[in-house]
Amino acid sequence: MNPEQSHVPALKVGVVGIGWAGQQHLKAYSSIPGVELVAVAGMEEELLRSLQAEYTIPHAFLRWEDMLEHQDLDAISVAVPTFLHAPIGVAALERGLHVLSEKPLARTAEEGRTMVAAARKSGRVLDVAFNHRRRGDIQKLKSIIDDGGLGRPYYAKASWLRRTGIPRLGSWFTNPHLSGGGPMADIGVHVLDYSLHLLGEPKVLSVSATVYAELGPRGRGGSARFSPMNDEHPFEVEDFASAFLRLEGGATLLIEAGWASYREKDDLLDFMVYGTDGGAELKAKGSPSAPVGELRIFTDKDGQNADYMPEARPGLGHQTVVEDFIETVRAGETVWGHHDGSLALNRAEIIDACYRSAREGKEVQL
Question: Among 160, 294, 319, 327, whose CB has the most other CB atoms within 10 angstroms?
Fold first, then answer.
């Protein structure tokens, strides 16, 4: 904490959701000076009590509504199934709380707009946890592109692919009314986010997408890592998706997102780009567990091959996401208006367009 902040009262925060993502938020908040974890909410009572004790959190709730009634909060994290992002986020913003939500922003862009509108009306921060753009290898490549090391990027391809990675077959993940979609909405939004981030946030003009459900409906494509199949929800989403995006300025981007397909067993998160003065290829096998992927830069100097492999350090993921959120909240009202969820809404609008394109079998303009 800066000396100037030493007299500032502690920021009191709460976390809704106690699964993997919620636990990342709890861990991050607990390590930030001047932040006090005062409340946590989750439906798994045994786990809830365990986390409450681990982080010495004074208040624990089974219902998120009860947590929001707790008056002593400045901000919350929302780390629950996607269909709850908008109800919880809007309710918290209307109570004057700052909100950090897990991705995607909401099930649909329409729901996302209600969240952004609530943030703007309340004047509070609404941020979304796009943690993969915080990877050290992606940040290293970002600096190279921004410094002009590749010239003008004109074509890029990126993906996150799994072999047996359907998260909890038969759970809310496989019900579009609860999740908003399959891998395009779940992990594809990460691919879309870090790709547009790397390319300098170009405007997406149109999308042409396809989706497939070849393995999930037959009970294939799950693994012990993502828990076994159950019969609570039928498989009604895609298990693989691909989208071709036309970008302002003439560049194009191809993204792929797959929970399950017959490919090598290790997950792959990657990004490839061709530029006027160079190209780059990032491959993180075993993603997201691989802390640093293999990054190669292809270029020349004086007509000679000058390819190289820059060194990148592991990123801090959710730790950085949460730290940046707290820094934004502490920065005050002059900064809050620039963090109203608009970037995450842009991602939601693009994902919506991808699903519409797949349904209609044609390119969709944005």
Answer: 160
Upstream peptide bond of 104 is cis (omega within 30 degrees of 0): yes
Residue 322 has pLDDT above 80, yes or no: yes
Strands 11-16 and 35-41: parallel
Rg (CA), the chain: 21
CA–CA dist 87, 66 (Å, integer): 14
**Nearest Cα residue to 179 out of 255, 227, 239, 124:** 239
Share of the chain above pLDDT 90, in %: 89
Residue 170: the pLDDT is 76
Q: Which residues contact 308 (CB under 8 A, 6 or more apart)?
A: 296, 297, 299
* pTM beyond cutoff 0.90: yes
**How is the chain split into domains, by residue range?**
3-131+318-339, 136-314
Structural fold of domain 3-131+318-339:
Rossmann fold (3.40.50)
Parallel, antiparallel, or unpaired: how do β-strands 204-212 and 240-247 relate? Answer: antiparallel
Scanning 55-108, the segments in alpha helix (DSSP H) are: 64-68, 85-94
Over residues 46-57, the mean pLDDT reads: 98
Q: What is the mean pLDDT of residues 250-270?
A: 97
Q: Which of 131, 189, 140 is nearest to 319 (CA)?
A: 131
Q: Token pair of 188, please?
A: 């594809």
The answer, yes or no, to whether residue 180 has pLDDT greater than 50, is yes
Q: Average of pLDDT values for 177-205? A: 98
Q: CA-CA distance, 259 to 165, in Å (whole number)?
A: 5
User: Does residue 81 sit in helix, strand or coil?
Assistant: coil
The arrangement of secondary structure in 136-314, i.e. its CATH architecture, is 2-Layer Sandwich (3.30)
- Of 81, 110, 76, nearest to 92 by C-alpha is 76
316-333 average pLDDT score: 96
Residue 50 backbone dihedrals phi, psi, to 5 degrees: -65, -45
96 Cβ contact partners less than 8 Å away, ≥ 6 residues apart: 122, 124
Question: Residue 340 gets which letter from DSSP?
Answer: B
Q: What SS3 class is residue 266?
A: coil
Beta bridge pairs of residue 156: 253, 273
Contact 236, 173 (CB under 8 A): no
Structure tokens at 222: 């799950």
